[in-house]
Every structure is written in structure tokens, then in C-alpha cells.
Amino acid sequence: MDGKAKTIVWFRRDLRIEDNPALAAAARDGCVFPVFIWCPKEEGQFYPGRVSRWWLKQSLIQLELSLRSLGAKLVLIKAQSTLEALLECIGAAGATKVVYNHLYDPVSLVRDHDIKQKLGELGISVQSYNGELLYEPWEVYGDDGHAFTTFDAFWDKCVHMQNEPASQLPPWRLDLCAVDGRSIDELGLEDESEKSSNALLGRGWSPGWSNADKALTEFVENHLCDYSKDRLRVAGNSTSLLSPHLHFGELSVRKVFHLVRMKHLLWSKEGNHDQEESANLFLRAIGLREYSRYLCFNFPFTHERSLLSTLKFFPWHADQSHFKAWRQGRTGYPLVDAGMRELWATGWIHNRIRVIVSSFFVKFLLLPWQWGMKYFWDTLLDADLESDILGWQYISGSLPDGHELERLDSPEVQGFKFDPEGEYVRHWLPELARMPAEWIHHPWDAPISVLKASGVELGLNYPKPIVDIDVARDRLIEAIFTMRGKEATARATNFNGTDEVVFDNSETSEIVGNPKAILKEKLPCPTSSSHDQRVPSLQNSKNVILNRKRPMPAEDKQPLRDNVHNCNHNGATSKTDDDLRSTAESSSTKKQTTSSRTSFSVPQAVSLPLKVKPFPECESSGPVEEEIDTEETSRENRAVGV
Fold first, then answer.
1. For tag attachment on the chain, is the N or C end more exposed, with fewer CB atoms within 10 Å?
2. What keywords sit in the KW lines (predicted)?
């Protein structure tokens, strides 16, 4: 064993044994030193919320058991610096190599690039692999060499790629390279005040890669066939529920893709069109997850600024009272409120509900979409930065193929469409439990006799609408008019052009917060290989374009403090609402002293102008609603991946 190479396998969001390229490569080379490094300081503004940290803890426990069964031990480390922790591991284990699987969010891109360069300068071999996607972002470009900015073009390119994504078999046995680390509890992923609330999560969810594999088999064999119909129901378990497993890398996306595609081919051959459509929609949902990583890699400013430059002129309303009412499910629109209260209590909401509450947030309340994205990050069990970025940019009209900015979907219409009997609303809004289905999605129109019989007192035990839909429409139109006026003035002054342009507008947007991290050109490394991760590079020419099913948990009784530290469009911060209780609570908030969680810092030197088609004009509500039932609904799965 002494003559074998010792390799550190740096686990992050790839917490599985099967189809783990970094682990497989290390196992082939010699002794394996698996390590997971928890560095809250480096998480900064994207420190995970309570429920997400609970899942991470349970997943690490399962991974450690699996590695022990193979003869290895997962070393858990809590550190102030990931780089320093890796260097200590290298010294303690006598390792000569570090391997890991790629991540694509802006924070990880900067950190991983910096770590790889510094380890390389010290003569330490570093290799990284694709354990997250079907294809790497730098493998998928148009014929002109430019990055795609619409999903359909991107996904069409992917499905016609000649190289089939290959899966890695799990190792049979690992040679142990023993180094002591911390216990799982010493990582501090969960404190005593959170355990009673977190215990409810274990009743409905089973984290860990082996449980993820069972959940995948159950879905593909028993539920995929009805996915095209079931996914439209907001009540009950109508989606795959695989998104948290995918986020933490407990499932290989390649395995999911191949299993579903085999079903698609089988049903296509049998002429079963309904089931074929179900498989096709699910494959597109996988494609949207791919696309979220693709956008974050090619445009790493998108967690803070819109992909389309037009939106930088939009007059957002930084109204803290509206933001609070939305968070607490007190907007007066039953479907929106039911969704937000479910999120508040469980850390989970259906894809369709995510679309509805986020659309209401942006279009009715005109709140900055970055606030909503950050709140989703803090509260969702399957919080996924790349998917959240894609979903919120899509809803806010920030993408070339996103919702039309002019489009205003009525929560009342959406309610009758996706919760026709009001079952979902009654479950999460007990004050409306006796309201007849005819009125449950617009109680403000109900006769007084109906309200009395239902025990509903508008303005007392259930709020009146926070804004009338006609007023909201007028305000949205006025905001768009203002935006276009400012855009026209700016173009006349600076651009003298007519096409919409996608670019990093950091130079024209004043952002108060942390210093921007800059991705530099990748330096030559003696250990580079074709597997290694690339980073977007800055071209010299300014004219060059860059390229078990869950029961409903009881409502959380733990008093929590809102940790969505908000910023308005000028960078100003607001005080924390002490009366907000939510799954977003982070017990470690007080311990973090470096990065301000009010800012949205971003790598800025990695994105240059990219011309796309002009923003589409709004169509009538009828045809748009019909499109939602087919193609657009699958695209809106981007909120959770699948």
C-alpha cells in the first residue's frame, strides 16, 4: 500500500458512490482519502438555510456509511479556508494528488479556479471531472462559437451531440488512507434549537444516495408514465420529488437521463403517445437543469443582474411591507398565500406554485427579483442557486425566451386551473377551509352571506387583496413604459443601436457590497487534462462576443428569525423582521463576520456583449395560457430542476 499513490477526493455536491468520476479515478490510482470540507465563511451570502443544511447532514451520514462499507473513511473538516484545509489534508495524508467534480455556480467557479491554480503552483497534481452534467458548458456552443441564450437552441444542440455521456461504475473496494477528522455533529450543520423542527423533515424525506436510487426507480417505474398529467396538480405528490437528491449529487444526472430515455424509446416504439409525452417532458426538465448551469458558467453575473440589459432600467418597488406580506402568506390571494405558507412550514412547494408566487412577486408587487431568489435559496429544501437564478430570471422577463414582461397572470385564474376544488388552499389556509370552491380563489367577490357561513372576515381573519389586479396591471404597464423610456435615452446616448444586448452591466450599475471576485485566464498547469474545468475568459477585443412519497409535515412551531437580509436597488439594507418565522433560519448567522448577506457580489470580468433576438411582444392571454399547458409548463420546471 505504501507504494501506491495517495489521492484526496474532495466531495462537495456529489455525495454518492455510483457514477462519481473523481472517486472512480482516485480508486484506480491507489489509496483514497475522501474528505468533505465545511467552510461557512466562504458560503457568504449563500449560506444554506436550515432545511438545506439538514439534508446535507443526513446525506453525509449516508455517504460515510457507504464509504466505510468499501473500506474507506469520510473525513469531515470544518475550516476557515478550504485551501488551507486541503493543504493540511495533503500534508497529513502524504497525498500527491487532489481530485474533485465540477461545480458551476459563480461562488464555486471563483473558489475552485483559485484553489486549482494555487495547488498547481505548489506542485500538487489537481484534476477535476464532470460529475454534474450530461455535457460541460464549454462543449455546447452554436456554429458561430457563441453561447446559446435560449433554452430550445441549447437543448436541441445537446440532444444531437454525437458523444454519448458515459457513466462510471462504482468502485468495488477502496484502499484506506486514514486521517482523523471531526464528527458530523461537530460540523455545526444543525444546532439544538433546530432539531425539533428538523425531526419533522425525516418523516417525509429520506436523504442519501442509496435512498435516492430507490426514489428514482420508484418514479421511473410507477409514476413517470403519468407525469404529463400529474405535474399539473398542485396538491399531493404529483412530481418526481428528485430535485434535492439531484442538488446534493446523490443521483447521477446521467443515470436519470438514460433511464428516462429508455422509457421514452420504449413507449415511442409501442405508439403510446401519452407516456411518450411524459418522458419527453421529463427529459426537457433535465435539460433545464443543464441549462441553468450553462447560463451560470457563461454569464456568472446572473445571480445579481438580468441577462437582458433592458431590466437594469426597470423601476423596482423596494417595499418592505409587501415583501413581508408575501413571505408570510398574507397577500389576500389564496393560491399565493397557500404556497408561501407551505414553503414557510415545510421548505417545499410544487413547481407550478413556485412559478405562481414568483410571478406575483415580480409582476403584482414589482419587488426586485433578486430578493425573491435569495428567499427561495434560504427556505427551499432543494435550494439550488443555478436553478433559482434561471427560474427568477425567466419569470421576471430577464431572459430572451422568458415570460413576456407585460404578461400578468391572475392568481384567481391560476387557482381554478390548478386547484379547481380548492383542496390545496384549504389545507394551507385553514381560515378558508369552509369557503365553497366557487369562491375560494376570489373570496373578495363572495356574497356577505357566503363569507359569514364560511367564517371569513376579510381584513380580520384573512386579508383583503394587497393590490387590486387592475391596479397591478396599470402599475406594471407604467413601470415598463418608464423602463423603455430610460432605455431609449441610454441607447441614444451610448449605443446608438436597436438590438437587445446581453452583457455584464456591472460598470453601469452601482452595487454596494463585497469586492467583486474576478475570474482570470487559466494558467498552464502541468497536471491539466481534457477533464479539467475551464473558466470563461476575457477576450482582448471589445468587439468580441464571449462565449418514499412525503406526508404533509405539521407546521413548524420553532420561532425563527428572518435571515433574508435584504437590499434595495440602491444597495441599502433593511432591518431584520423579528416576527418572521420560517425555514430560512440560520443558527450560524451571528457567527459569520466576513461577507455581508445584503450584497450580491459577482465575478465581473467574464461576460461581454452577446446579441440576441429582440424581446418578444406580449401575446393575448388566451394563446399564452394554452402554451403553458404544453411546452411552457415543462420549461417552468426549472424552478426545481425536475
1. N
2. Chromophore, FAD, Flavoprotein
